[in-house]
Structure formats: structure tokens, C-alpha cells
Amino acid sequence: MTAGYNNGAEQQRGTGDCPLTVWYDGACPLCIREIALMRRLDRRNAIRFTDISTPAAACPIDRQLLLERFHASENGQLLSGAAAFAAMWRAIPLLRPLGLLARRPGVLAVLEALYKQFLKVRPHIQKRLGPVD
Fold first, then answer.
1. Which H helix or E strand runs over 48?
2. How far is CA 121 from the centre of its chain?
3. Cβ(6)–Cβ(109) under 8 Å?
4. Measured distance CA(117)–CA(111) in Å, rounded
């Protein structure tokens, strides 16, 4: 990966024909809950959600990198962290204002800083949630 990959603004060529693809960990209780909510909100089916928890799943980059941070591909650009969340929000009409706000100067940097703090506590949240029925 290139320098600055973890800053959330990294963009590389993604794959797929859908305008937005989101990769998520289907073995993570927190991820499953969050993606279930996003699927309900995505009434236009504008997002392709791809579970990468199994070895058979196609990954545009190293699977471990996809599992460590949230990733999405918006119009062929691979996004990571807060930038990926903002892309997902833009695809969902209810959340679109948040995604557009992330394009304002400085906002994405603040969101990325918050995301990095969340990554530190994510393992503890995952343990508390337990498996999804």
C-alpha cells in the first residue's frame, strides 16, 4: 500500500460494476448489526454489500487490510475508514447529508480521527455484543 493509506483519504482503483461496494466482516457481531441497519436504509439497493469473512470471498486488496478497516469502492475508487463511511452515507438518502458534509474542508479529517479512536475500542465492543442470531 502507499504511504498515507490509513488516513481515510486513500483512493485506489476498486472493482465491480455497482456504483458503491462495501466490504464487511460477516463474522463480526458489530459489523453484522451495522450492515443490517444500512441494508434496511438502502431502499434503492444502491450498495453492494460483500461479506469477506470467508476465504472464498473476492477481495480487491489483502483480506487482512479489509478486515482491519472499513472499506468501500465508490465509482471505482477504493476508500478506507471515514471516507468509506461517508461514501456509504451518500448512497443512502436519509444519511446523504452526513456524507456530503464529510466533503467539506476539514470534516473528513475530524471523522477519520474519531474513526481511529473507535478502532481502539472496537474489539471490546465486539466481545460484549456476542454472536448474532
1. strand 47-51
2. 17
3. no
4. 10
Q: Are 26 and 52 in contact (CB under 8 A)?
A: yes
Strands 71-74 and 20-24: antiparallel
Q: Kindly give the confidence (pLDDT) of every residue in the chain, 133 residues in length, as a single tens digit, with 9 standing for 90 and above.
A: 333 333 343 333 334 456 899 999 998 888 999 999 999 999 999 999 999 998 888 899 999 999 999 999 999 999 999 999 999 999 999 999 999 999 999 999 999 999 999 999 888 887 777 666 6
Could you tell me the three cell numbers for 34? Answer: 451495522
CA atoms lying within 13 Å on the CB side of residue 62: 5
Q: What is the model's pTM?
A: 0.81
CB neighbours (10 Å) of residue 98? 16
Return the HEC string of 3-42. CCHHHCCCCEECCCCCCEEEEECCCCHHHHHHHHHHHHHC
